[in-house]
Amino acid sequence: MNGTAFQIGETRLILIPSDETELEEFCVPQEWVDIPNWSADYYLPVQVNLDGDDGECWIELCGFATHRQLKNDGRYNAGDRTYCLAIEELTESLTVMQLTFGLNLQQEVSPLPSLSEGEAAKLLQLLSDSSIYSPRLRVTFEQWAAFLANDELRQLLYGKRLGILEKKEVASGLIFSTQDRENLVQRVKSYLHEGWQTVEGIVEKLGTLEPNLVYALEGNQRYRDGYSSSHNKIPTLIELLKDKRNKGNQWRVAELLGRVEPGNAEAIAALTDLLQTTQDDILRRQAAVSLGKIDPKNASAGLRVGKIINLEMRLDTERVVLVVTLFPEGSDKTNVHLRVSPVRSQTLPPNLELLVLDEGGEIFGEERTDMVNDSLEYEFTADLGDYFQVKVALQQVSVTEDFTI
């Protein structure tokens, strides 16, 4: 399938290359338009000429179209499942594109159907047949899109069509095997006996005394202004969750849905859909953590723990809180997000360091504060069983915490 995606801040672009000498029509594969978490704000045709000598090879950007334009004005070709526009219909000036960065230029698309493990296994077997030249046209678009949007299924299909034997079959879990997740949950629970707490526990402990910390951890006014139960407002919350124009509201709703009664089907479905469709890392983390609270055995559920760290300096004590968020990413990967926030003030002390070390003691991640940082963050992906250390240091004082995924 032709095309490459780029993310620039909140803006997503799809580049579609073509080696046609005279490009008269811009055609975009349907996957880039109708898979919710693949769609983009802008689509750019790129002419590529690699036939000449080194000095004569060239590429040329031929303008752009928006997602809304492709959906509303594009001609859909069912034969090859593409949306097409004449080159004359594109906006030629890329300056216009730059000026519209940040606007909501995506037309809403229908959510994908969910695949059971049995359906996924049957599709994997069918599409793995190497005699099928184009598996994307072998089944309905809805089936193909739901299959393709799943990272593990797509990787399994890729391996099988190349004849690569996979270590894990689809039955082991579409994203994260149940056994892997249970092991991770038990490991995190063991941290709770070693001085770590849930974020809610930290908020409850310090909420009335340390309002800046509460605000930094939760990111909204709820703990300052009071919290009213939203258990009976789930349909309204879900509607707010669908409004992509207000990321702040989406984050707040995702956090509130983690406080409804465990097992609530509507909340679980809404959070799962958000995980599959959003490109925002902060939203993905919060959706995964909230899902872990109301559906702990869900294969996409995340976990979050925190610890208050004392960095003693002379006669005073600097206190910060280290928060670690883990959630599944692919078949055997875990996304690890680290955040250090101040406890007593609005900013962290200057020259505070957040270091991440591998099992050999080598630093592979490092962040340092200047004069105005209100937090330090670092994110990476780890394999199951990986060991690493997190070190928080200020001048000659440091605290190191050990982790195993």
Summarize the structure.
With 405 residues, this protein is of the alpha+beta class. Helix content is 32%, strand content 27%.
Describe the 3D structure.
The protein contains 14 helices and 16 strands. By secondary structure, the protein is α+β, with helices and mostly antiparallel strands. Strands 1, 2, 4, 5 and 6 form a 5-stranded mixed β-sheet that branches. A 4-stranded antiparallel β-sheet has the order 9-10-11-14. Helix 13 packs antiparallel against helix 14. The chain is globular, with a radius of gyration of 24 Å. About 10% of the residues have low confidence.
Task: Give short descriptive properties of this protein.
single chain, 405 residues, alpha+beta, 14 helices, 16 strands
Low-confidence stretches: 165-176, 208-231
- The tally of helices reads 14
What is the average of the pLDDT values?
81
Beginning-to-end CA distance, first to last residue: 34 Å
Number of strands: 16
What is the element string, with H for helices and E for strands?
EEEHEEEHEEHHHHHHHHHHHHEEEEEEEE
What general outline do the C-alpha atoms trace? Answer: globular
Strand coverage percent: 25-35%
| Helix percent band | 25-40%
Structural class: alpha+beta
The largest β sheet comes out as: 5 strands, mixed
